[in-house]
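ok so I'm stuck.
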Amino acid sequence: MITLYASPISPNSRKVHWALEEMGVPYTYKHVDLAKREQKQPDFLKLNPNGRVPVLDHEGFILYESNAILWFLADKYGRGVIVPEDVSERALIDQWMWWQASDFGPAVGRPWLMKLQERFGRALDAVRHQEHLEAARGPLAILDQHLSSHEFVVADRFSIADIALAESFGLSDMAGISRADLPHLNAWHARLAARPAFIKTRPAT
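replied:
not stuck anymore, here's the structure
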């Protein structure tokens, strides 16, 4: 039995939730209330000492870090579907997912986090926020250029690389990032957002 400890407001949680729905794998969703800091409570810290969601419990096997969870689930339940068998294509997926974690995700996430904190009463440092917006332009342009000649990120087939990158790009509106000059990224994200599994895993508004 699969148990996913997650929060619908967490983009990293949504990565895993989306993948589970794409593969049609039965699971139990355990909501971790971030506003109540349940992720920092002793019982949760036994699952992930970093105090972050998501965490996967797969029949007693505990795994955290969203991209690692994506690979585990895709290899176990979606190999040949949501991840390929071809070694070169798998390496390309890994390349883009490492890039999402090291470059793209932080670039979009920093201005998003500042705007999120502003919603909860923290004063926005407008100069620093603008610096983060400028820093995000490079990674956004790289992915937009790549998608100018690809329907999906790797091998023109939907994969966990699309999931990981799309959840980061989905933060751009709230982050205050202009998407006007990113036509290929916008079109790609619109295609993904029409998938039933994506729609099902969006937070309630």
